[in-house]
Amino acid sequence: MGLVEKRIAAALQKDSFPAWKKQVTDTARTKLEFEVAWDELVKEGFADAYPKNVEYNFFAPLVAALESVCSDDIGKEAFAAKIKKVHIGSKRNWSSLEVKVEGNTLYMDADPTYAKTQDDTRDYAKQVQTTLENAL
C-alpha cells in the first residue's frame, strides 16, 4: 500500500466510516463491533473509486439487508442475540461478495474495486439477507 492508498484508508476511517457505522447500528438497533481491514479495501490504482465503492460493495447492501431482517421484533431480537461483530475485508481477487456467519460474526469479503452503483447493491443485499436469515 503506497502513500496515496494510506491517505485514502485514513480518510475513509475518519470521514466515511462513522456515518456508515451509525447507519448500520441504527438499522440493526443493537451495538455491533466492527472489524474493517482497511489495508485490504484500498487497492492501488483505484483512488478515484473511493469512498463510493466501499459503500456500494459493503455498507449499502448491509443496511438494505438489515432493513429487511430487523423489520420486526422477531428479526431484531434474533439478530441482536446472534450477531455481535461485522468483519469487512477484501481477500477476494474477483468482484463477487462472499458473506457468511461464523460464531457471532458476520463476514463480508468482496473486491471494492468492482464498480457498482447504488442500484447494483440489491444482489449483494439479498445475499447478505439470505445468509443472515439462514444463520438466525
Shape: globular
How many domains, as an integer? Answer: 1
Mean pLDDT: 92
Quickly count the helices: 5
Order of helices and strands: HEHHHEEEH
| CA-based gyration radius | 14 Å
**Strand residue percentage:** 5-15%
Q: Give the N-terminus to C-terminus distance in angstroms.
A: 37 Å
Helix share, percent: 40-55%
The largest pleated sheet is described as:
4 strands, mixed
Placed side by side, the strands forming the largest sheet appear as 1-2-4-3
Total strand count, please? Answer: 4
Point out poorly predicted stretches.
none
The class by helix and strand makeup works out as alpha/beta
Q: What is the topological layout?
A:
Layout: H1 3-28, E1 33-36, H2 38-41, H3 52-69, H4 73-82, E2 85-89, E3 98-102, E4 105-109, H5 121-135
Helix pairs in contact: 1-3, 3-5
What can you see in these coordinates?
The chain has 136 residues and is α/β, with parallel strands linked by helices. The chain has one domain. Helix content is 54%, strand content 14%. The chain is built from five helices and four strands; from the N terminus they run H-E-H-H-H-E-E-E-H. It has a four-stranded mixed β-sheet. Strand 3 and strand 4 (105-109) form a beta hairpin. Helix 1 runs parallel beside helix 3 (52-69). It is globular, with a radius of gyration of 14 Å. The protein starts with a helix and ends with a helix. The relative contact order is 0.18.
